[in-house]
Amino acid sequence: MIDSQRKMPIGVFTGIFLVIGLAIYFWPKPACGMLTETLSNGFFMRWQAPVLLIVRSNKEQIIMNADSKELACEKVLIQINQANELN
């Protein structure tokens, strides 16, 4: 027979791992990671404080000033999304 007291720790550990997995899955991605996915292929990105420089494969340059790299990536994402909405 299965010991009823032994089921509890297995269930607790399974629940903990499930909660950790869901937290990792739904955790927001950093802005620079989202920017990399948005730009996909054919770009060069360089952070030289306080300027983020992005050169795309079509030779379009995006230059953004910000206090941090993440903030600059957020601003570029907003700019790209606004340009996509206009098209």
Can you characterise this structure?
The protein has about 90 residues and is of the alpha+beta class. Helix content is about 55%, strand content about 20%. The chain contains three helices and three strands. Strand 1 (about 45-50) and strand 2 (about 50-55) form a beta hairpin. Helix 2 (about 30-40) crosses helix 3. The longest helix has 23 residues, at about 5-25. The relative contact order is 0.12. The model has no long low-confidence stretch (mean pLDDT about 85).
Give a topology summary.
Layout: H1 4-26, H2 31-39, E1 43-48, E2 51-56, E3 61-65, H3 69-86
Antiparallel strand pairs: 1-2, 2-3
Strand order of the largest sheet: 1-2-3
Percent range for β-strand residues: 15-25%
Structural class: alpha+beta
Order of helices and strands: HHEEEH
Q: What is the tally of helical segments?
A: 3
Cα-atom radius of gyration: 22 Å
Number of strands: 3
Helix content: 55-70%
The general outline is: elongated
| Cα end-to-end separation | 67 Å
Low-confidence stretches: none
Average pLDDT for all residues: 85
Query: What's the main sheet like?
Result: 3 strands, antiparallel
